[in-house]
Request: fold
Amino acid sequence: MIDEKYPPGKRKIIKALRTLLEDREFNSVTTSDIAKTAGVTEGLIYKYFANKRDLLYQVLKEHIDQFLFKVEKDLEGSLSSLDKLKAIVHSSVYSYAKHRVFAKMLLIEVRNSPDYFSSDACNLIRLHVKNILGIIETGIKNCEIKETLNPIAIREVLLGAIEQGCISKIIFNRKIDVDKITEDICDIVFNGLSQN
Amino acid sequence: MIDEKYPPGKRKIIKALRTLLEDREFNSVTTSDIAKTAGVTEGLIYKYFANKRDLLYQVLKEHIDQFLFKVEKDLEGSLSSLDKLKAIVHSSVYSYAKHRVFAKMLLIEVRNSPDYFSSDACNLIRLHVKNILGIIETGIKNCEIKETLNPIAIREVLLGAIEQGCISKIIFNRKIDVDKITEDICDIVFNGLSQN
DNA sequence: AAAGGTAAGTGAGTTTTACTTACTAAAAAG
DNA sequence: CTTTTTAGTAAGTAAAACTCACTTACCTTT
Reply:
């Protein structure tokens, strides 16, 4: 998955950025910081990456690769579509909780640059998101999910809930209770909040 | 609301940024661009604003002021808590649809700078969000909303759904069907997606 | 083993951009 | 009429992203 055939300098640069992002936000990390941390010169960064953001996206892509691999595994046991959706919610929240750097990148840093949306990282996410839509559509065919609902809207509610449930904890470095957030989201979205 | 007693230079600067953000993202707008568009010198920006982001937050604050004023009005007719929540969803989506610059700032630009969270703009949002929680809690007391659910989680699902429902349309400049998105979100979140 | 080619890496620039500061002109205040 | 405050300018600085001409080292082929 992670291409170990990268030259050592390139590996060092990727690792350096990942390390730096652990306690600092992307915009405050300078190329000079990255080079120093990696033990290479600034020029080398531009040998391997088109620019600073391109480097970010490649770091992100590696994480997403691993994330999607794990999601796939987590889905194996699930039979019903609702179980699958719940497993995705759990995996996502878990991943945000465990890999805060990855979470910050995906939920915060990435959006405000149009070129993200043509990056490999974004294309991987698109695949994942298409997959979720497939599960929802299967759920509708199975009569697990109301056929009156718009599948895309369902997906957006779920993904939005996951993001919103994690983002403030990510930003303010607070604990994320994965199981509780998962239960809360699924309780609400699966059964609704209305009493009657 | 908008303090017309601002000196003309300051007004011009605020207006210039708002104009520039209509087709460009904040990070790609330079202080030199802002100054040129406003017809003042760069130095003047720093007379009135601590830095470039501070300017952004003040522009944002003006929009939020107006937004919250409108939300308040939209809530007047609603009797039940669920109606109120639906009105908030509608107002929010409407506002994102109509004021795309505001939407971009709030959904995209703002997060990735820690100092936003101590800005006036953010404090206004906090008030609004606290208000939503109040409505949910009233709904639980009224037995409109299930008392087994976590009110904060409900709010997060709703807000997340709104964001997610709008953000891709904002980014890719696609049409936002306010009524449809509102219906979709409320259908799902109020009654759940599960068939049984 | 010598030559040539290529990949990895360097380091000294350049340019751009956010921000500073010392100044001026004019209006308000005393 | 003088002083002070306010609105605004112009030139400059520092830091950051990015460039480019160059070196070193290794691999391949004759």
